[in-house]
Amino acid sequence: MHKKVFKIIGIIFFCIGLLLGTIALILYATLGHNHRRIARDSDRVTAIITSITTQPSVDADGHRSYNRRVYVEYEAGGVVINAPLRWTNTGMFVGQPIDILVNRQNPHEFVMTWAAYWIPVGILLGLGVIFGSIGTGFLIANRRKQRKFRWLLEYGTPIWANVLGTEENWNIRINGQPATVLVAAHGHMQFVSGPLDNNDLMTIGEHVKVLLHPDNANKYVFDIHNESFLTPHQPPAPLNTVSN
After folding, report:
1. Which tops the pLDDT comparison, 236 or 135?
2. How far apart are CA 138 and CA 143, in angstroms?
């Protein structure tokens, strides 16, 4: 895989992870603060969903949306209270019992139980860690590839291989299409590059610089235009074993 692909994927996953983690922390700081304040001096009460309403609304651009409100009824402080829920889901239905935490000092003030708040926060935080870890892994892999390339660029044994042409490699796909790879030969060995960019295309008969590891010829990179490089997806193979 080309170095740019590793870097782009890593940045995308890392940013998604950072965004999810930030949302989780915002929920913890805002909803969590209110929840902790009310739950500190509260009673656990079972409320019953009495009605579910859906009201249409139109924004400034004329787009229609629907606001769903869920109302519950519960008894606290000797009075029966009917109030809307702040946290709802599509699985709720009329007559469903819902556990809530009601403030002893103000029965009209209540919050959902701990699980209703912390499970979404935990899920968002967990997804943030997963995406962030994947992104970090790709960025580390990209850094290692670049480090290996720089090492080979400085200490590798340079050879000039004859370009045999390009091929489509279905084992590597970019946007659903097979990657184009460069095939070159030097002596009795054949080398196959990683995915080509448009500016890396070369014609048959040209020569391409290949840098071999001094101690292991299976490790090599293509140095093209002295600017970009292509990491191989397979070791060199003897020419007489490659079918035409």
Report:
1. 135
2. 9
